[in-house]
Amino acid sequence: MAAGRIEVSVSASADVGSRQFKYSDPVGPLPATYLLPFAPMASFGLETYPFASSYLPVLRDLGFRGRISQGFALSSETPQGVAIETSWTRFGGEVRQRFFVPGPHAMELGVYVGADASYFGMNTTTPLPALLPAARTTAVRLGFDARLLVAGRLSLLWGGAYLATTSPGEIYDRFRSPSVFGIDGELGGAFGIMPGLEARLTGRYTRYVASFKPVIGDQIVAGGALDEQLQFGLGVRYAH
Amino acid sequence: MRTDPSAWSWRLAFGALCLLAGCPGTLADKALYEAALDAGRPNGVEGGADAGPCGDVVARIFVPTCGGSACHGTNAPQQDLDLVSPGLASRVVGVIAKGCSVPLADPADPEGSLIYQKLSPTPPCGAPMPLARPPLSQADEACVLGWIAAQ
Predict the structure, then answer these.
(1) To probe the interface with A, which of B26, B33, B46, B113 has the most A CB atoms within 10 Å?
(2) Superfamily classification of domain A8-239
């Protein structure tokens, strides 16, 4: 399916997620690296352009979209083998303006602004010699995306966004004067199966970057932290 | 002073990369924090006689290092700064240094305090301290920083 002026689309995919949280210049044993190598997830998305069937020049390409990904059956443990109750939910929504570039390799470009959240919950009753990087991170998401018809039914998808955090999350409360922002990138492919229906393979890499300003006397010290989240999904999208 | 253009190019390239990819913050002097942790602080920096591994910072560091007769002792101290007599905190916390517009000790900004900055090779004014003596060890510098922070 080439780039087209759709009114509404729904998507679903089976995903795998991964998260690594590590510190730069950690002092002492508390700021320890955390790794969740594999997390099964399910994702759903909805995108709509309410005025797509009108002839209003800008409004017909102004749309809304939302998505949610939920991890399930997560198992997580520290390097010492202590099991941690873990949950992971990612969700977000945006207002998107799309633009079409006709040609043999038709392209759809989009710019958007919205909100994004990653809720990573961790809990254990066992005393741990390290901090748990639990974080309910919320951010304003500002970005672009593109869809390029490569050949026949195959399209390439990519995009990037800046995440201005509005609430960085619990782990950052442990550090003095945290400054956190994020970026993310998306890359994928779509293959048209039949009119309106396509299979999709997508990947999203999100990177939250933190800087701290500790002073001598702080009990927990690090220069900063890097929270990397990776998600791959295989699914379908139906568009009308 | 001449600078190497290639070094600046690398710094600019690294800065641009960090801007694009996002690099986490770093500690300018990680060894100081490690020394403080090794010294068992922050519980041992209050400056009392039983103040943990840092000990009584005033008695152990300030008095023998700074309290010489021509320095910051009790008798006609340099810059009117007596680092020896009891009640040192009341004479330095929030007090602007004589001849230098920097607080002598600011617990909210220990690293910006003149008492600490004078321990570096390039203080904001005057000569590095202690004058004509070996510099303090890194651990003792951390103890001084901790003493300021604890006031």
Answers:
(1) B33
(2) OPCA outer membrane adhesin/invasin (2.40.128.100)
